[in-house]
Amino acid sequence: MRILIGAALCWALAGCSVYMATKQPDAKNVDLFRVGTPRTLMLAEFGMPAASETKNGRTYEIFKFVNGYSAGAKAGRAVFHGAADIVTLGLWEVVGTPTEGVFFTGDEMVFRVRYDKDDLIDEVVVLKRP
Fold it and tell me: What does the pLDDT look like over 19-28, one tens digit per residue?
């Protein structure tokens, strides 16, 4: 009976910080922002640009995204939060949930790229990077 109650308590106490850690944004390959990267690869990694325009026969695009965390980092934090919840009987959530919500939300980044006639990047301008 004690094991059943303990298991139910652990399940109930594993709360928001565990969930938040697993749902943080994924890491993006920002190394693609370099001369010579094909536009198709950029679209595959970052999705549609926030803005796109053609000036003087050249395409300019702005990519705005949140760069997050690797799957391993997210899983590690989730395991830590779960263990801390169990050890503290749920009191860890008072610290863990705000920590995930404030400090582990990823970094907003903005880049402007220009493509040549073959749709390869020929210029990268960092507009916002942490």
Answer: 888 888 889 9
Residue 23, both tokens: 């749902």
The token pair that represents 100 in the structure block:
């995930």
- pLDDT category of residue 38 using cuts at 50, 70 and 90: very high
Alpha carbons within 13 angstroms on the beta-carbon side of residue 81 total 25
- The conformational region for residue 56 under phi > 0 = left, psi -120 to 50 = alpha, else beta, is left
Whether residue 40 has pLDDT greater than 90: yes
In the predicted model, what is the mean pLDDT of residues 104-122?
95
C-alpha atoms less than 13 angstroms from C-alpha of 105 in its C-beta half-sphere: 8
- Cα angle vertex 77, ends 75, 78, to 5°? 60
CB count within 10 Å of CB 19 equals: 13
Give the CA count within 13 Å in the CB-facing half-sphere of 93.
Answer: 14
* Joined tokens for residue 90: 């749920």
Query: What's the pTM value of the predicted model, to 2 decimals?
Result: 0.74
